[in-house]
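batch job 7 of whatever, protein = Monooxygenase
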Amino acid sequence: MKHIVVVGAGPAGVATALLLARQGMKVTLLEKEVAFERVFRGEGLMPAGLDALYQMGLKETFRKVASRRLDSWDFYVGGQRRMRVTEPENEGLATQIIDQGGLLRTMVDRAKKLPNFEFLAGWQVSELLRQEDAVIGVRANRGGEQKDVSADCIIACDGRYSRLRQLAGLSITQAKSQFDVLWFKLPAPPSLAEETPFVACLQPDRQFAFYPSWDGRLQIGWIVEKSAHKRGGLARLKEKDWIEEFSLALPPELASHFRAHKDELEGPIYLDVQVGCCEQWSIPGLLLIGDAAHPMAPNRAQGINMALRDAIVVANHFSALKDAKEEQISTDVLSAIQAERAPEIEAVQKMQLAEWQKVEFISRPGLPYFGFKAIATLFGRFKFAQNIWLHEQQGLREGVLSVDLKT
Ligand SMILES: Cc1cc2nc3c(=O)[nH]c(=O)nc-3n(C[C@H](O)[C@H](O)[C@H](O)COP(=O)(O)OP(=O)(O)OC[C@H]3O[C@@H](n4cnc5c(N)ncnc54)[C@H](O)[C@@H]3O)c2cc1C
């Protein structure tokens, strides 16, 4: 039986570990945290991500996780809703707002039912074990304890600041820096108890979005310029009267809800957005996937999607190998996984950047903003304008290439 060590229990690691364990491989999943609840996790799951979960046979599992189906994409410009696009549903797939921690825990619980799966929570990988040119295991620590785990292949799913990427000597080509995000939570207004819109708000030099989340509260993401937290910037950001900042771009009834709940605002949490891609995703004995190989920007919720789709491709390539005689998974297989995934990652990152450049342009004070406001006011209520927007979003909603689980 091949032994695979997966490092990091985010979407990439949990999905990969579950799929490989189901194929009959011995799988050890190591995670540095002891709980799945984290201060902030991405919550948007686009149709391609939901499709990936369904392909993994997790439709019923998904139903048990707290989630809300998105109803619409709303665009507020200058304090008024100018366009509403109804969230379509193709083949039962629509965008969801999910409790990511709950989803991961449920998936790990599924894997735990398999005798060949082991979950080591609270273990942080600090070193790679090597023999000649190949990685043959990892060293992990928990408190004062240390453990060496050897394996036929290590799959590093340890996120955007990947320690394993660094230990393997693989470097990332950073994409042009875009923006960072401040996250807030606020009680949701009663009008959004039943309805789940994703609301994008735009004013000159001001872009933020909010949606009623799976926990019944509003999740608000405010865009700040890249690295705004440095050189005392964070203290200044924390001092701002955020409720007033939001209210300036909201219609009166929402603004008064925000003001009434001023004391219940949580945040900001500063999220440093990293975007890029490794030129090389593997060395003998080790493969990077998910954000470790290609950190994704948060716009249009692509990170979970791409991580789940990476896991499917890994499972497809590994399925042929479970009974192979050679101990190590060959570097050709690891390179083939990169070759299959990299084109979609590149295309999606380009689309995210283009999307951001558009938003950045139309929120520039003066002609760009007022021109856009006029266009949105004139055409936003017409179906053809809504369909144009939806058509542009297709790659970000459904993925760029087909990714089908073959095992
Ligand atoms: C502000 C922001 C908002 C976002 N919102 C969304 C969204 O709504 N929808 C979406 O799809 N994507 C979103 N993303 C992107 C998304 O969070 C990531 O792309 C996605 O989580 C990547 O999954 P992953 O499994 O590769 O890595 P991660 O989810 O980062 O998981 C990595 C795991 O590895 C563990 N780990 C790290 N180092 C070690 C170690 N040395 N040893 C053991 N364990 C380790 C970590 O604790 C973690 O559990 C957002 C990103 C940002 C920055």
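notes: Residues 7-13, 30-33, 42-44, 124-125, 157-159, 163, 181, 271, 273, 290-292, 296, 298, 301-305, 307 surround flavin-adenine dinucleotide (CB under 6 Å).
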